[in-house]
């Protein structure tokens, strides 16, 4: 638990430290590349000056590139997670608390969304939607691509949590202390915020720590398919899909980028498990 | 029971209808002209574009197009007139101008690949997941349990496309155990050995992550069931641990697994885009991905609708099976 918490802090803080120290992922080191564009030296040109080696082809410092790219990757994952949780919680509480027609309307809409082949829709809509975002002047280039990814991931992400929250709220609202509050004349707002919401925090925290790595991976996957951020900006997905090109000649590059992603995802998964164990006395089994 | 069945089927049909309309509308209202795309990139002959527009039926408002599309689904559809007419028999999902082929034909070619992939992977992950889960639960806290926990952690942390790439790089390129995937596919009935050889790595890739999830799920389900009263009764009767595990625990613990497996299987049948791309398999996923790249609208709509239909149908089957197993569901719904 402590180990994973430390790791999470390190991965989250690293990008900001990188910014403070003045490391720029776009800085090039052409002298470290051979004439064929491959890094000089063993293991991808690892040296004191470049602790994780050099990116082949262009000659960026890989560590700087990873830190630089982490900003975008984490930004996308964090915004998506927070917003989809917010929508999911609000919808879930509304459904569970007011029941009846509201519940069945939103419920049918969720059924409808979940029936969509979401992964495929994200791929299919990417090109036209990004173009539309650019045309409407809201955002340009990579910002538009990021915006699209965040919006569409939220769109397909919130229904899962909404369902879980709804079933929880349905059971909580029948408990004695809610009855007591109502008998004392508490308003709906008060019951929702003071009696029901506090009981949902553990679910929300667990869901957060499990869906953040999910969206981190999603960003990598869509960059791998060529739908994510484009150079000269960097994201982890872009680095991974770039490193695949060099996997035969420069396996170190591939291993460092993929290991970074797997490591961070693993860390968040461990954290999620730990939080669940700590908050839920029933899950001692896991 | 009958009333529940009717209600459930009606809802599913309504959702399928809504999804099909939404998919059609989303893609029809995008700023792309499917008729202009039929004419190639550097084409500036408006006459050809207009002729193709009428021939493919894109000249009418989109809600009318949708009605024609629905009609084609049941009665088949003709494109153009006279000798040059193209006929797509029912169920027609449209005609792809890029591939010069009816979408239904294309899907029929791709579906066996995806189905082989999905079925093989599911068998693999069910075997691995259930075995590991039961073993871990049986020897809880011992080294077998720790090993399965590590497997679960790695499996859930490694994205599918990375598993596939790692397998491809090592098994195929570095160690040359299996020849490089050529993009061809041999049917099971033609040459079972070659079929299995082509699909082996994709199966492992797809099964890896799911096997990890199922291991965790089965382990928790078995442990929870082992603490139930009827297990204590069985123990008190003096039954052996083996009989208790096999006859009493597994039956109760595995019922929810069937639901999970059904839904996961449906998702896979819709095309596993990443695995098919990494291993260059000519399945539904690759078909739809290349359609997206070339903006081949009829294929996109057809493939999306098919996978939505599969998911909805599987949901329905799972729910109905559940209602048979558990009478409480019927009342609640």
From TrEMBL, chain A:
<keyword id="KW-0472">Membrane</keyword>
<dbReference type="InterPro" id="IPR000515">
    <property type="entry name" value="MetI-like"/>
</dbReference>
<keyword id="KW-1133">Transmembrane helix</keyword>
<feature type="transmembrane region" description="Helical">
    <location>
        <begin position="253"/>
        <end position="272"/>
    </location>
</feature>
<dbReference type="InterPro" id="IPR050366">
    <property type="entry name" value="BP-dependent_transpt_permease"/>
</dbReference>
<protein>
    <submittedName>
        <fullName>Unannotated protein</fullName>
    </submittedName>
</protein>
<keyword id="KW-0812">Transmembrane</keyword>
<feature type="domain" description="ABC transmembrane type-1">
    <location>
        <begin position="70"/>
        <end position="272"/>
    </location>
</feature>
<dbReference type="Pfam" id="PF00528">
    <property type="entry name" value="BPD_transp_1"/>
</dbReference>
<feature type="transmembrane region" description="Helical">
    <location>
        <begin position="72"/>
        <end position="97"/>
    </location>
</feature>
<feature type="transmembrane region" description="Helical">
    <location>
        <begin position="109"/>
        <end position="127"/>
    </location>
</feature>
<dbReference type="GO" id="GO:0055085">
    <property type="term" value="P:transmembrane transport"/>
</dbReference>
<keyword id="KW-1003">Cell membrane</keyword>
<dbReference type="InterPro" id="IPR035906">
    <property type="entry name" value="MetI-like_sf"/>
</dbReference>
<dbReference type="GO" id="GO:0005886">
    <property type="term" value="C:plasma membrane"/>
</dbReference>
<feature type="transmembrane region" description="Helical">
    <location>
        <begin position="200"/>
        <end position="229"/>
    </location>
</feature>
<keyword id="KW-0813">Transport</keyword>
<feature type="transmembrane region" description="Helical">
    <location>
        <begin position="147"/>
        <end position="165"/>
    </location>
</feature>
Automatic annotation (TrEMBL), chain B:
<dbReference type="InterPro" id="IPR000515">
    <property type="entry name" value="MetI-like"/>
</dbReference>
<feature type="domain" description="ABC transmembrane type-1">
    <location>
        <begin position="111"/>
        <end position="322"/>
    </location>
</feature>
<feature type="transmembrane region" description="Helical">
    <location>
        <begin position="195"/>
        <end position="214"/>
    </location>
</feature>
<feature type="transmembrane region" description="Helical">
    <location>
        <begin position="149"/>
        <end position="175"/>
    </location>
</feature>
<protein>
    <submittedName>
        <fullName>Unannotated protein</fullName>
    </submittedName>
</protein>
<keyword id="KW-0813">Transport</keyword>
<feature type="transmembrane region" description="Helical">
    <location>
        <begin position="115"/>
        <end position="137"/>
    </location>
</feature>
<dbReference type="GO" id="GO:0005886">
    <property type="term" value="C:plasma membrane"/>
</dbReference>
<dbReference type="Pfam" id="PF19300">
    <property type="entry name" value="BPD_transp_1_N"/>
</dbReference>
<keyword id="KW-1003">Cell membrane</keyword>
<dbReference type="InterPro" id="IPR035906">
    <property type="entry name" value="MetI-like_sf"/>
</dbReference>
<feature type="transmembrane region" description="Helical">
    <location>
        <begin position="295"/>
        <end position="325"/>
    </location>
</feature>
<dbReference type="GO" id="GO:0055085">
    <property type="term" value="P:transmembrane transport"/>
</dbReference>
<keyword id="KW-1133">Transmembrane helix</keyword>
<keyword id="KW-0472">Membrane</keyword>
<dbReference type="InterPro" id="IPR045621">
    <property type="entry name" value="BPD_transp_1_N"/>
</dbReference>
<feature type="transmembrane region" description="Helical">
    <location>
        <begin position="12"/>
        <end position="32"/>
    </location>
</feature>
<keyword id="KW-0812">Transmembrane</keyword>
<dbReference type="Pfam" id="PF00528">
    <property type="entry name" value="BPD_transp_1"/>
</dbReference>
<feature type="transmembrane region" description="Helical">
    <location>
        <begin position="252"/>
        <end position="275"/>
    </location>
</feature>
